Task: structure prediction
Amino acid sequence: VLLIEQRKRVVEVGLEALRRGIVHGTAGNFSERDRESGLIAISPSGIPYPRTTVEDVVVVDLDGRVVEGTRRPSSETPMHTMVMRAFDHVDAIVHTHSHYATVVSTIRPYLPPVLTETCVVVGARVPVTRYGLTAMEDIGQSVVEVMTPDSRAVIMRNHGLITFGKSFEEALLYSMLVEEAAEVYVQALAANGGKEPNLVPEELVGEMTERFNIGYGQPRGEERGAGS
Ligand SMILES: [Zn+2]
Result:
């Protein structure tokens, strides 16, 4: 069986995303690239997370062709493979339809810097794509268009959120932090009569990020969090 460890992690990250409330039903999908073989383990299409087994996870190549597996891969496989072909820093992808990020996708060209922690961990702005045709190369193209070589998250217009890491742990953290910031942003807009709320001064984010990366947490860097 190819990519057994990656397949296990695809099953586990789906369950973890379900527990954290950022996916439901069969929405969302997850993939991890194996550097050695260049192959990718990706969620199967349309199987609820609690019922997904290691055998259900599909192994595809960088062009999205099935290499091993009895299930059909996620309908968004072209998006996952296109991002991994285009960006070398991406080895794990988490795609969800988390609620508040999706709300932001319908009203803004980007999520502005509203929470300090999200700014220093994910970046000052999270871009929103143009509208992309789902399950087609087009949606992958719409994501790649707004990415940079260190992108950690992109909000997909009228659709959801996609995050990029070296591991699922990283990508899942970015998903949580963007959703948290999007929730604060949407509620702050509502509480403020629709007017833009106070934002993190964008010119300070670069310097704060450097300090955060050097000084926060324990020396081994296994903890996460900011602002306290
Ligand atoms: Zn989706």
Summary: Residues 76, 95, 97, 159-160 surround zinc ion (CB under 6 Å). The chain is about 35% helix and 15% strand. The beta strands are 29-33, 40-42, 58-60, 66-68, 92-96, 110-111, 126-127, 153-156, 160-165. The chain has a mean pLDDT of 95.
